[in-house]
From TrEMBL, chain A:
<feature type="binding site">
    <location>
        <begin position="26"/>
        <end position="33"/>
    </location>
    <ligand>
        <name>GTP</name>
    </ligand>
</feature>
<dbReference type="InterPro" id="IPR041757">
    <property type="entry name" value="CysN_GTP-bd"/>
</dbReference>
<keyword id="KW-0548">Nucleotidyltransferase</keyword>
<comment type="subunit">
    <text>Heterodimer composed of CysD, the smaller subunit, and CysNC.</text>
</comment>
<dbReference type="InterPro" id="IPR044139">
    <property type="entry name" value="CysN_NoDQ_III"/>
</dbReference>
<dbReference type="InterPro" id="IPR009000">
    <property type="entry name" value="Transl_B-barrel_sf"/>
</dbReference>
<dbReference type="InterPro" id="IPR050100">
    <property type="entry name" value="TRAFAC_GTPase_members"/>
</dbReference>
<keyword id="KW-0547">Nucleotide-binding</keyword>
<comment type="similarity">
    <text>Belongs to the TRAFAC class translation factor GTPase superfamily. Classic translation factor GTPase family. CysN/NodQ subfamily.</text>
</comment>
UniProtKB/TrEMBL annotation, chain B:
<protein>
    <recommendedName>
        <fullName>Sulfate adenylyltransferase subunit 2</fullName>
        <ecNumber>2.7.7.4</ecNumber>
    </recommendedName>
</protein>
<dbReference type="GO" id="GO:0005524">
    <property type="term" value="F:ATP binding"/>
</dbReference>
<dbReference type="InterPro" id="IPR014729">
    <property type="entry name" value="Rossmann-like_a/b/a_fold"/>
</dbReference>
<dbReference type="GO" id="GO:0004781">
    <property type="term" value="F:sulfate adenylyltransferase (ATP) activity"/>
</dbReference>
<keyword id="KW-0548">Nucleotidyltransferase</keyword>
<keyword id="KW-0067">ATP-binding</keyword>
<comment type="similarity">
    <text>Belongs to the PAPS reductase family. CysD subfamily.</text>
</comment>
<dbReference type="GO" id="GO:0070814">
    <property type="term" value="P:hydrogen sulfide biosynthetic process"/>
</dbReference>
<keyword id="KW-0808">Transferase</keyword>
Length: 552, 302
């Protein structure tokens, strides 16, 4: 234990430690702050003057009787201290002989799902506390669901206050079994359950003498040894260009952080969306050129060829592309006090791209306590739903569960500039497969005999305006069908009406035209804003058709 | 797999570089606040790394309270020249000419006028929409909750209850005219990380960090350096030579030294590991009132 190192050896060793980011969640009285205080205290990171201040503060606000109130170490802000609750995410730092740790400490109150999501986005591991006396409660379920939603790979269920249930193995086993029933279907890959007492220090750093039946590691030992390297995606190379570096005419580099995968000097890469190919000429850093780079290294790539790549575009390997699409669906967590206005457009920040999105549909919202799904027209603060989006330009993405960095996004309200929601992409969506949300207002419209598809959306979908070509003359039939073929070939949506077959051609043509179609009427002529009359003469059909097309 | 693993310092470095590049890509007029201290020195090195082989594409700005240690100013001018920094120096000249200083006006008035006001005036003068600062979350309790992108309203004020959610590495850079963002790329670094990095990278720092015999007076338990003749005579009469160093650097009358033998980075770290005081206790201003740092931050101080 007490291995003697001189300071140089200590520093050389310290320099090589890795970093583990962890999230802690629990409800109000689970002893979470006490546990964190204990981790900080027992890892000898608390300086004496912080302890002095603590003793002062405990006298004024403390809730722990004569014991030191570890929780007061953590509650930074004045107003919160007076209320006795932590209300936001606070970050804590400590280190052991093997690792450095960043703790995101988040509160357990119902209304603060938002903060847990904020604290957990970068976490490698989550600790969820339960009180041994109460076992798995609604909040435990909610926290576990959020951990699975964020894709955190490692979870510790810390069954705290074991001292208050006589260190009973039966109590612990029952809680673990209840918990696994609930958590297993959520698919969190690695779940560890540890019985402990944060207040007394049992199974926090040292094995508890009172729980010999527990054969697993104490909490700190587990945190020090859990393997996190393989959690990253080293398979799919994704490089969202962050900044184009042009210090002089001889150097053009693309600076960014490797989002996933591995890139090597000489690799063939393709730029999205231009699909131009080139090879990696060099991987430049201040500390010298590299042969390869991996996430989350911040590097600068230079290419063999002068291809144009800007911020927001992406370099990938040509045989491994992300989705390139404007339509996608995602789990969305609403973070704003103001509820979602589904008609509004939002800014979306995804990798290094900033563009606009609209909401096509909310498929359902999830009750975070029961995981039940229900229909909804909107999402309110702390609500989570499965939402379908269309972005203004194609995004380059992967499903979040495969690739956090290319599957995550935030929504920004264009008026207030607040970060109003955050999302995790599930998949791309075929826009035409969407079942439509019908509102009450829509139903009134329909009952009154109106379509709820607007002329504008028809025009957008068909990429055309409704129009009638009234064709008369000796070669009307040939002209009409030639025009149909030519319009069809250039992607227009077109129908032909023949006056010999349809009696009320004027009315039918008018109806179809209003619904955005191009209507060709053979053997008919009329006047109107959307009508072009054509006289079809034998031997002049082709040139007349081309004249019509030119005027499109 | 271990060949694809970064040490904690390399991971923190990568995170900071990402943040610095993101700000330059998304803001029109960023600035880096340079305090001459060790954290600033690390931050400047990270900025140099972010844009290598190019130059750092924004200015550094030092808010000179006119009461900084002389050695700090010498250090600043030497390295600004050597590294070819685009350096802006701003002071509250009006208050300075009126003779505001910590000995005559006390630390609260001095800090407000010569630091906070000077900073706010300078930010308004140049219309910076983003300002990098070297603050770390482990320094002080109220900083533990601050975002990396910290939104400030038109009056440069921080509202701890109304912070934007901040997830993954997706930072929200959108502000209305007149509003701004303070950016803290060193948020996740600890004091030990800073020292380790300075050692690993050979980053120059002000010699005041290293122990040396210096002329000192004890003022209310703080060991204050006699840096110039503005130190009142009554104090100077009590001057004695002590081997001291400074754990943080600021205005000399407000920054206490610690007695120390540590004259190398290794010795400083050794002392830090075994020491009983955390670093901000040598700052006189933090003890003005309870929750005083939070108060200052709401008002616009870093």
């Amino acid at each position: 234990m007490a291995e003697k190192l001189n300071i140089k050896e200590f520093l050389d060793r310290d320099e090589k430690k890795d970093l583990l980011r962890l999230l802690t969640a629990g409800s109000v009285d689970d002893g979470k702050s006490t546990l964190i205080g204990r981790l900080l205290f027992d890892s000898k990171k608390l300086y004496e003057d912080q302890l002095d201040a603590l003793e002062r503060d405990t006298k004024r606000y403390g809730n722990a009787g004569d014991n030191i109130d570890y929780a007061l170490l953590l509650d930074g802000l004045k107003a919160e201290r007076e209320q006795g609750i932590t209300i936001d995410v606070a970050y804590r730092y400590f280190s052991t002989n093997n690792r450095k740790f960043i703790i995101a400490d988040t509160p357990g109150h119902e209304q603060y799902t938002r903060n847990m999501i904020t604290g957990g986005s970068t976490a490698n591991l989550a600790i969820i506390l339960v009180d041994a006396r109460t076992g798995v409660i609604t909040q435990t379920r909610r926290h576990t669901y959020l951990v699975s939603l964020l894709g955190i790979q490692h979870l510790v269920l810390a069954v705290n206050k074991m001292d208050l249930v006589d260190y009973s193995q039966q109590v612990f086993d029952k809680i673990v079994s209840d918990y696994r029933d609930f958590a297993t279907p959520l698919g969190i890959p690695d779940i560890h359950c540890i019985p402990l007492s944060a207040l007394k220090g049992d199974n926090v750093v040292e094995h508890s003498p009172y729980m010999k039946w527990y054969k697993g590691q104490p909490l700190l030992e587990f945190l020090e040894t859990v393997k996190i390297e393989s959690d990253k995606n080293f398979t799919d190379f994704r490089y969202p260009v962050q900044y184009v570096l042009r210090p002089n005419l001889d150097f053009r580099g693309f600076s960014s952080t490797v989002a996933s995968g591995i890139v090597r000097k000489g690799d063939e890469v393709i730029a999205l969306p231009s699909m131009k190919k080139s090879r990696i000429k060099s991987i430049v850093t201040y500390d010298g050129e590299l042969d390869m780079a991996f996430p989350p290294q911040a590097i600068t790539l230079t290419l063999e060829d002068e291809i144009d790549v800007s911020r927001g575009e992406m370099l990938v390997h040509p045989d491994n592309l992300p989705f390139i699409d404007r339509n996608f669906e995602a789990m969305l967590v609403w973070m704003d006090e103001t509820k979602m206005d589904p008609e509004q457009q939002f800014f979306i920040k995804h990798t290094t791209n900033l563009t606009r999105v609209k909401i096509d549909q909310i498929r359902y919202k999830v009750n975070v306590n029961t995981l039940e799904q229900s229909m909804t027209d909107t999402l309110e603060l702390n609500e989570i739903g499965r939402v379908v989006f269309t972005s203004n330009k194609p995004l380059f993405f992967d499903p979040y569960r495969k690739n956090k960095n290319t599957g995550a996004f935030i929504l920004i309200d264009p008026i207030t500039n607040n970060t109003c929601a955050v999302g995790m992409i599930i998949d791309k969506v075929n826009a035409r497969d969407l079942s439509t949300n019908i509102t009450e207002e829509d139903r009134r419209y329909m009952r009154d005999g109106y379509s709820i598809v607007s002329p504008e959306s028809r025009a957008r979908l068909y990429e055309q305006q409704g129009h009638i070509y009234a064709i008369s003359g000796e070669a009307a039939t040939e002209f009409g069908y030639t025009l149909e073929r030519r319009l069809f070939d250039i992607g227009k949506t077109v129908v032909v009406l023949n006056s010999r077959e349809i009696t009320d051609i004027e009315k039918v043509a008018d109806t179809l035209c209003k619904q955005g179609l191009i209507v060709i009427c053979i053997g008919y002529s009329a006047n109107g804003k959307y009508i072009t009359n054509c006289k079809a003469e034998t031997n002049k059909v082709s040139s007349s058709v081309e004249d019509v097309l030119k005027k499109l | 797999m271990s060949e694809y693993k970064l040490t904690h310092l390399k991971e923190l470095e990568a995170e900071s570089i990402h943040i610095i590049r993101e700000v330059v890509a998304e803001f029109e007029n960023p600035v880096m606040l340079y305090s001459i201290g060790k954290d600033s020195s690390v931050m400047v090195r990270l900025a140099e790394k972010a844009f290598y082989p190019g130059k750092v594409p924004f200015p550094l700005m030092h808010i000179d309270s006119k009461w900084k240690f002389k050695e700090m100013i010498e250090f600043r001018d030497k390295y600004a020249k050597e590294y070819d920094w685009d350096l802006i120096v701003e002071s509250n000249m009006k208050a300075f000419q009126e003779g505001v200083g910590p000995f005559t006006h006390g630390s609260k008035v001095h800090t407000d006028l010569m630091k906070t006001q000077a900073l706010l005036n300078a930010l308004d003068k140049y219309k910076f929409d983003a300002a990098f600062g070297g603050a770390r979350r482990d320094e002080e309790k109220s900083r533990a909750k601050e975002r990396i992108y910290s939104f400030r309203d038109k009056f440069h004020q921080w509202d701890p209850k109304n912070q934007r959610p901040e997830l993954w590495n997706l930072y929200n850079a959108r502000v209305h005219k007149g509003e701004s963002i303070r950016v803290f790329p060193l948020s996740n670094w600890t004091e030990l990380d800073i020292w380790q990095y300075i050692r690993m990278e050979n980053i120059p720092i002000v010699p005041l960090y290293f122990a040396k015999e210096r002329p000192i007076v004890n003022i209310d338990g703080n060991l204050i350096l006699v840096d110039d003749e503005r130190m009142p005579q009554e104090y100077r009469d009590k001057m004695e030579m002590k081997k001291v160093r400074f754990r943080t650097l600021g205005c000399y009358p407000l920054t206490g030294a610690v007695e120390s033998e540590a004259d190398t980075i290794e010795k400083i770290v050794e002392e830090m590991m075994t020491t009983t005081k955390s670093e901000r206790t040598t700052r006189v201003i933090d003890f003005d009132q309870d929750a005083s740092m939070e108060q200052k931050k709401r008002e616009g101080y870093f």
